[in-house]
């Protein structure tokens, strides 16, 4: 067996792991310039009175059988026996960037294999546990989790809540005792509780404080928790949630947790996010080597009212505005005149498209744009030919009435006939049409996910991955967007087989400022679908001018979602302006380091992107509500080269600044707004820029370039 101590290192992070006789992480924090195993003597714990008479390690399995009284990492039984396993390491297998530990409990007949990999470039840690039944008789798995220790100073927890049209809302909890638990049982990643948590020193911010962030890469039911034990130790735990009887391991069978991705930062949330983004770009996301094309999606422009001639006119206008990819959303298939019918009938509607989709696609392609289309393969309407022919294809429990959601049910992907039907229809669609892009939707939650009477929630998620993998392999030229009523299925596992997320069904620029900021903690801008919607938002009925909408959509994978042919001339000029601005800066936006800036006024959101070479940057300052003070203070911009000098240029601003010279809000503008100004990187980081007074629901855009 290899040495008992393993050290995993990156440029910024060290993880020290005791491997034998059990697996225990002893240190996870900033890189140690001079570590030797003798240093570990300082960590020998006392054994306090009033407790067990032995030291109890916080292992990767968190076994109750060792005397840990918190949430264990493995729960289950073999017909009521072998229910409290304790694992002893049998093999230590060093890997190029990590280590695999194979531990067994001979009494229970179980093996636990733990994989730990530390990306040497980003510092992101990946962890997965696999449980194997070594004996005859099925072992019923109730729970299987990944457990990581956290230091005692990690006493504040940040997590995310949300709902439809209001995703990725952060909240914080000070944790002295007990735990913070979030779980999702909706059958997809969910709008309500994104599977990510961050723990740190109290008061951690974007640029200050130690933080440990984690994301469970799983598109189904899940639980995440952070606990403060009564002995002062802390642990983070993440797992897929299983229904009763869902996983019974026969002899030799195994079950793995989803991968847990974790990142440590010594200097706040922004460096943590940059590490996650670097890892996503290098190891998870696969994109063509070309700029991300600007979208036009027809949904909020025409809904179900499809006329090929009119759609081609929309496409012509879109191309004139600078759009590079034209997507026909819901409403193209047989009988789909509203959202109450036809899901499952994946055939072109001959009434709307008597000549098929080909003429529309050909016109889009002649205009120099790619063509995309919307599908929702996992769903079925009761008012559909497919349901009338095969009501038994539902994901449901016999004997119960399945509630509809958005007038639809879920198809049982564990049924091979269902899987084959969907693969055939999607292959027909992509194989017989010149399609470069698919928006894949999933518009309802999953209730009683049963296959032949047994729970099949995990299998449903895995078969969704399998279906998408099969299509990606057959049609490698096609990009896929993951959508689930907006941001209901956003995670790293689906991103391995997708190219973009639809962040939210809410295009309201004010709401999108906070939604997109929340998503940016784990995801880089190039996968964040961000569209300019109509001047009156269809989700909130709030109105915003084109300037605020344009700057809000700029910092993602940009698109417009409306009917450009019906927009006013002023609106169309605005669309063209912000599309051109995005295209000018998107190489930086989609490759640089995201920086979220701290500001004392919670109604002022400032963020930007700095190039890896630190020679260019672009920053937005958005005022969401009335400023807290009459002067908004200074904006300090970290991350530039301290000794280099930069030119700061106002790229875009409200008419309050560009035309009215302060108008009703200011008698005089800050001097740097009048003309490009020069400053050093250290000056911008420490002294900053004096901000102008902005009206609520407005924004400005800065460009920074090294001299």
Write structural notes for this entry:
- It is a single chain.
- This protein has 707 residues and is an alpha+beta fold.
- The protein has 13 helices and 39 strands.
- Strands 5, 6, 7, 8, 10, 11, 13, 14, 18 and 19 form a 10-stranded antiparallel β-sheet that branches. An 8-stranded parallel barrel has the order 20-21-22-25-28-29-30-31, surrounded by 4 helices. Strands 4, 9, 12, 15, 16 and 17 form a 6-stranded antiparallel β-sheet that branches.
- A hairpin with a 2-residue loop joins strand 10 and strand 11 (166-174).
- Helix 3 runs parallel beside helix 4 and helix 6 runs parallel beside helix 7.
- The longest helix is centred in the C-terminal third of the chain and has 21 residues, at 569-589.
- The mean pLDDT is 97.
Number of helices: 13
Indicate the proportion of strand residues: 25-35%
Oligomer: single chain
Which segments are poorly predicted (pLDDT under 50) over 5 or more consecutive residues?
none
The whole-angstrom Rg is: 27 Å
The percentage helix is 10-25%
Residue-averaged pLDDT? 97
Q: Main β-sheet, in a few words? A: 10 strands, antiparallel
N- to C-terminal distance: 57 Å
Q: Write down how many β-strands occur, each being a DSSP E stretch of 2 or more residues.
A: 39
Tell me the structural class.
alpha+beta
> What shape does the CA trace take?
globular
């Amino acid at each position: 067996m290899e040495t008992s101590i393993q050290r995993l290192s990156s440029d910024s992070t060290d993880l020290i792991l005791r491997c034998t006789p059990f697996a225990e992480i002893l240190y996870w924090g900033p890189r140690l310039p001079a570590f030797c195993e003798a240093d570990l003597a300082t960590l020998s714990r006392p054994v306090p009175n009033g407790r067990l008479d032995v030291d109890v390690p916080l292992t990767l399995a968190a076994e109750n059988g060792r005397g840990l009284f918190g949430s264990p990492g493995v729960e289950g039984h073999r017909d009521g026996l072998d229910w409290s396993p304790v694992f002893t390491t049998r093999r230590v297998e060093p890997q190029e960037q990590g280590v695999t530990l194979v531990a067994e409990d001979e009494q229970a007949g179980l093996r636990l294999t733990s994989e730990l990999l530390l990306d040497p470039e980003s510092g992101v840690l990946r962890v997965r546990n696999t449980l194997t039944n070594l004996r005859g008789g099925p072992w019923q798995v109730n729970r299987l989790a990944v457990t990581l220790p956290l230091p005692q100073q990690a006493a504040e927890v940040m997590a995310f809540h949300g709902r439809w049209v209001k995703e990725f809302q952060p909240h914080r909890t000070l944790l002295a005792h007990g735990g913070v638990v979030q779980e999702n049982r909706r059958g997809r990643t969910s709008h309500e509780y994104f599977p990510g948590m961050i723990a740190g020193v109290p008061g951690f911010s974007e640029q200050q404080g130690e933080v440990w962030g984690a994301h469970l890469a799983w598109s189904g039911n899940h639980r995440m928790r952070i606990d403060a034990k009564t002995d002062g130790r802390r642990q983070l735990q993440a797992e897929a949630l299983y229904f009763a009887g869902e996983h019974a391991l026969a002899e030799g069978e195994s079950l793995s947790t989803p991968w847990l991705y974790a990142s440590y930062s010594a200097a706040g949330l922004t460096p943590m996010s940059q590490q996650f983004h670097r890892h996503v770009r290098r190891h998870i996301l696969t994109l063509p080597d070309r700029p991300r094309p600007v979208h036009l999606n027809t949904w909020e422009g025409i809904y179900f009212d499809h006329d090929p001639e009119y759609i081609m006119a929309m496409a012509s206008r879109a191309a004139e505005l600078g759009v590079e990819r034209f997507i026909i959303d819901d409403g193209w298939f047989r009988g789909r005149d509203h959202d109450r019918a036809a899901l499952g009938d994946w055939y072109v509607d001959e009434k709307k498209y008597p000549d098929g989709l080909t003429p529309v696609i050909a016109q889009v392609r002649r205009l120099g744009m790619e063509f995309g289309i919307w599908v929702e393969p996992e769903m079925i309407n009761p008012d559909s030919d497919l349901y009338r022919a095969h009501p038994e294809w539902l994901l449901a429990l016999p004997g119960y009435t399945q509630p509809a959601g958005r007038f639809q049910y879920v198809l049982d992907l564990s049924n091979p006939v269902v899987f084959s039907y969907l693969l055939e229809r999607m292959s027909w669609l992509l194989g017989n049409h010149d399609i470069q892009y698919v928006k894949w939707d999933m518009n309802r939650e999953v209730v009683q996910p049963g296959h032949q009477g047994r729970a099949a929630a995990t299998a449903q998620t895995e078969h969704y991955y399998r279906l998408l993998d099969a299509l990606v392999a057959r049609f490698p030229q096609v990009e896929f967007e993951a959508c689930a009523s907006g941001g209901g299925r956003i995670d790293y596992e689906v991103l391995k087989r997708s190219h973009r997320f639809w962040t939210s069904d809410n295009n309201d620029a004010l709401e999108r400022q906070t939604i997109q900021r929340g998503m940016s903690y784990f995801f880089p801008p190039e996968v964040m679908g961000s569209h300019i919607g109509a001047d009156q938002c269809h989700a909130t009925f709030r109105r915003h001018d084109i300037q605020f909408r344009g700057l809000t959509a700029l910092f993602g994978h940009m698109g417009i979602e409306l009917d450009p042919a019906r927009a006013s001339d002023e609106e169309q000029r605005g669309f063209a302006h912000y599309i051109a601005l995005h295209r000018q800066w998107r190489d930086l936006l989609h490759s640089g380091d995201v920086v979220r800036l701290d500001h004392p006024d919670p109604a002022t959101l400032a963020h930007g992107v700095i190039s890896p070479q630190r020679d260019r940057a672009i920053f937005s300052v958005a005022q969401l509500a009335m400023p807290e003070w009459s002067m908004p203070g200074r904006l300090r911009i970290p991350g530039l080269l301290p000794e280099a000098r930069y030119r700061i240029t106002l790229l875009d601003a409200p008419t309050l600044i560009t035309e009215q010279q302060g108008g009703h809000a200011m008698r005089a503008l800050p001097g740097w707004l009048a003309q490009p100004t020069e400053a050093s990187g250290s000056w911008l980081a420490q002294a900053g820029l004096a901000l102008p007074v902005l009206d609520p629901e407005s924004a400005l855009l800065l460009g920074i370039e090294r001299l």
